[in-house]
Amino acid sequence: MKTINRRHFLKASAIAGAGLALAPKLSFAQGTQSNNKPVLLGGRKPSYNFSRWPIYDQTEEKALLEVLHSNKWGRLNGSITTKFEAEYAKIHGTAHSLAVSSGTSALYTMFGALNVGPGDEVILPVYTFVASYNVVVLNYALPILIDTDIETFQIDTKKMEQAITPQTKLLMPVHIGGSPADIDTILAIGRKHNLPVIEDACQAHLAEWKGKKVGSFGLGGAFSFQSSKNLNCAEGGAITSNSKEFIDRCYSFHNQGQGGTGTSYEMGSGVRGTNLRITEFQAGLLLAQMSRLEQQARKRSENAAYLTRLFNEIPGITPAKLYRGTTNSAYHLYMFRYDQSKFAGLSRDRFIEALSAEGIPCSRGYGQMNSSDYVRGLASNKHYLKIYGEKTMKEWLERNQCPQNDKLTKEQSLWFTQTMLLGERSDMDKIAEAVRRIQKFAKELKK
Ligand SMILES: Cc1ncc(COP(=O)(O)O)c(C=O)c1O
Fold this sequence. Notes:
This protein is α+β, with helices and mostly antiparallel strands. It has a domain at 58-287: Type I PLP-dependent aspartate aminotransferase-like (Major domain) (Aspartate Aminotransferase, domain 2). The chain is 41% helix and 13% strand. The chain contains 15 helices and 15 strands. It has helices at residues 2-17, 58-70, 80-92, 103-113, 130-138, 157-162, 183-192, 244-254, 280-311, 348-357, 373-376, 382-399, 403-412, 425-440, 442-445, and strands spanning 96-100, 121-125, 142-146, 148-149, 154-155, 168-171, 198-200, 208-209, 212-213, 220-224, 237-241, 317-319, 326-328, 333-338, 413-417. The protein has a 4-stranded mixed beta sheet with strand order 1-11-10-7, sandwiched between helices. A 3-stranded parallel beta sheet has the order 3-2-6, covered by helices on one side. Strand 2 (121-125), helix 5 (130-138) and strand 3 (142-146) form a beta-alpha-beta unit. The longest helix has 32 residues, at 280-311. The model is unreliable at 1-34 (pLDDT under 50). It binds pyridoxal-5'-phosphate. Pyridoxal-5'-phosphate is lined by residues 102-104, 128-129, 131-132, 174, 200, 202-203, 224, 226, 237.
């Protein structure tokens, strides 16, 4: 019953976020300091209840000590990793899960299992953490960076389909910020062109599309448990899949080409492998952290939905929309757009400065990965020139142009982090009030 109520609530908030229905009017008075000056102009700095991170107690301590005293510290000796995998698959509604050493390892392992290599093209969004790009390049495949749907911050599926060539090996959407990409459309493109879909769900623990968890739609899903993530064991990752054959291949790749028994090269000749195993300490820590995961996810969703309703009332602040199929976002990031014309021309950087003075951390987020020296340098990498030739690499630079992403990231995009959403509802009120204060005094705040 609880779940149904929550789903309905989230659905309503997702729709409000998508601007498809008008959210009820909210009152901003509430005895607060909306008439006060911003801190930068001498106002008083409010206090907040943003969460510390990570959150832990004796549960984690006990889990770590149990592994320590068991003398079984690695997955090949112990049983905690297997237990974690069973739990992780269960909460994601997949038949299988494989724990690995990081989110990057999860992606890299799936690429290994699919035998991605030189000459292959992989389609992914430009608006993502650089790890998504790195795994493609580690395999000497060609990363095709797709422009952004400016309203959702997610991959533009129209441009995704247009980028497919006979060399395309797989589609790798990223559920950026923890919000689902347009899954139905991406799966339809995959089916139409007979291409596997690998979901980079590294930021999207427990996010849902039409009531099913992300990471359960494609051939495989990748999750990260790096320190900042909504589920954290310092460094770690997991693959989710419904295919036994695929997960066995992944197991073998992450375990030096060997199967679960560790005694034979079970995947046959010609396949590759490495060591990307997780430890029992990480698995123990993850099981302990998972005891709080759902409650934390609920709190983030509720606060984010409330903040979206408040922000929808502020001209010049536009929360990232959620696609219609979204029944839950993981809200690893709270992403929104800033329009300086509604703030008397106050620059985005100055707005960030003013918010930060109010005690509200805010960042511009990802930039233009396609035009970074790091990525453009690939066109002169000697191995890439050998594999693809100068003409293809020059064309590749052209193919990676992303004008919508340029517009979004150079002028508009902003983020809050997940720990802020673990604060109280009153903190969301305070965030909105601070934004209103800055808007009201925008002229004075301009340098
Ligand atoms: C979208 C995305 N993909 C991949 C990764 C890589 O995960 P990890 O840092 O665990 O290797 C991250 C981590 O930040 C990420 O945000």
